[in-house]
Queue: 2 jobs
Job 1
Amino acid sequence: MSSIAPALWSLLPTSTTLSPQGVVAIAGHAVPALAQQYGTPLYVFDRATIEAACRDYQRAFRAAYHASPVRILYAGKAYLAPPLVALMAAQGFGLDVVSAGELLVAQLGQMPMERIAFHGNNKSAEELRLALQLGVGRIVLDNEHELTLLTRLARELAVRPRVLLRVAPEVETKTHRYLQTGHASAKFGFALRTGEARAALLRILDEQVVELVGLHAHSGTMLRAVEPYQLTLQRLLELAAGLYQERAWWPQEVSPGGGWGVQTLDEPQMPPVELLAQALEQCMNHTLTSLGLALPAPTLVLEPGRSLIARAGVAIYRVGARKVTPGGTRYLFVDGGMADNIRPALYGAHYTAIPAERAFAEPEEHVCVAGRYCESGDILIERVTLPRMQADELLLLPTAGAYCLPMASNYNLVPRPAVVLVAEHACLLMERRETHADLLQRYAQEPIIE
Ligand code: LLP
């Protein structure tokens, strides 16, 4: 075999190349050399793929959405590091953060504070205070308690934060249960049906402490259909119309959140982002017309995470032991696993793998790729067909750019991997490998309790 299947090829970073021997390189950097220099497990992000994904969004919305201005915020929870923040800022994007930690990384990456939206369903007083002190552009209010807290802090600090109210849109989505966020029992946002959202909006307008600039909702993630977005946007505009009639308030901006999916091996048919842009335009125009309000369409704010970053990242593992069990499972063990990628265990996410040093080698056996952690559920790939791989060979997992590292843990006290960002003729260590010293320094140095 001298090529790899197109379906697999389209999961790899756009600047992936293969030597005649089948050695994988990303942006001209041979994977074995990267593994040699930085060790394994290693996560490699390709700058060109990220930039291409950003351009796709911009192009799609420029071509297919004309109803109102559009702002794009990268959802940093998908993966965040200062160089990535800087890259997103250079693309003209803003950032969605969900903690003081993410906010501080945003600051390190020099994202203009005005372009940041601070999300979360249980932000602490310290986090809100930091956001106010740094002058974060938008605070997305999730619940009554938070509204009270923010109002108090804003008075204390004599500032007038700009807020969006997050609404639970009661929209069903076809995605894993844990990835649904807009249904009637979801933990995020003010309820619509009970009047909670409307009451909170009235309260904000009455109190005049925080400045109400818009409405937000997010219905789920890894979505492939446009209907949840349309229904969400429609519900936000209907809520706004009610407020307009009561108080002459109209949002400057509305956000149907993020959540657009990506191509995977088992779901290769991912509609292009233009489809989302078209659907949102239609919905915006149609809803405003049917509400009979001659008001400007609010700025549309989008918060993509996964769709900007998933394809850009690959995980590189080194193969160790192999084992064929009496039960018939043929295991290939690698030096990472569930602590750097919990997604298969948590969501049943499917990954595939290729031998990074001989991608053209004939597949010979079905294996289960399992990690090094003391847990039976530590499985990265339930079944993949690979050439017979030997100890010390490198295995590459595509589409590992989103939500692997941010959910990484130190389970079994294993240090977390290094992360590099590659471009033609450049390689930046975004996160150095954690050391045992990093792990040990968090413990009490005196092991006796008197
Ligand atoms: N905006 C809000 C308010 C969100 O809650 C999320 C994701 C996003 C935007 C970005 O969604 P994206 O475009 O990345 O799908 N750990 C899970 C994903 C959880 C996403 C939570 N919220 C996973 O590994 O699939």
Note: The chain has a mean pLDDT of 96.
Job 2
Amino acid sequence: MKKKIFVTRRLLKENEEKLKELFEVTLNKDDKIYKPQEIIDGSKNFDGILSSVSDPISADTISKLSSSIKIIANGAVGFGNIDIKAAKEKGITVTNTPDVLTDATADIQILLLLGASRKAYEGRLAAETQNWKWSWDFLLGKQMSNKKLGILGMGRIGRAVAKRAKAFNMEIHYHNRSKLSPELEDGAIYHKDLKSLFKQSEFLSINCPATPETTKLVNKETLSYLEENTVVGNAARGDIVDDDAMIEALKSGKVFAYGLDVYNGEPKIHPEYLKLKNIFLLPHLGSATKRTRWDMAFRATKNLEDFFSGNKPQDQVN
Ligand code: DGY
């Protein structure tokens, strides 16, 4: 008998077809974002859930899930939306989808840093209102080439950002829980503490996962370690940044410009960000290419398949 999978969001056609071949599935045709209670009710007596980054699955939600649910396959590399400890306690396996979105997300991170530093938002505004003329001092940005790039979180995506930044002749610095092997470091300079990294960074790329330890890691105090006029990019998670402190830093000039793709309480965006010009905003597009979205959902499907064949899924995180 096929296992029953509750799929929380609409997937690309090919992915839904593959799931239907393997499992008995309930799909979300209208792509409505379910409230926790709708996930609990909808997945009653199912064997597993295929979730997305937009589904907050808290300890409370997990405690109310049907005892038949044995796995939550999250279709994202990040799994901060799921309380993995509560899931483990209830005997629910959680998986993510690493690797397949590394390139797409690193590409977007470069776009964020460039968009912010070269005033792409203001440029677009001036162009679309036909309110501009070329002049020597028109919308002068900060050049990314030949600068020092600090990478907060040198995992797969951080390293892929470093690789791209080298094409801009940037000097790469990073902070991680531990120093990487020389092979993975690939010439990047390790900073044991965040203060030392922030002091060196002319550009700062936020790439660490969202965990209880990284919540608001970029805050009033840590932002004060930056030199004036630093450019910051965040393609990781909104929770890592204290928005009020960042807005203050953007207003004071401590941060020259901020490029971000991810938000606290998505899809809401802090209204102050929308009033600022030294900002470059995208609506969580990090993994948004067809190839990447296919691969993410196929990988989540493979995790379900492995799990129900009695094997440990390759991307188990708890
Ligand atoms: C992820 O995989 O964590 C991305 O943010 C989803 O787009």
Note: Residues 51 and 74 are 5 Å apart (CA to CA).
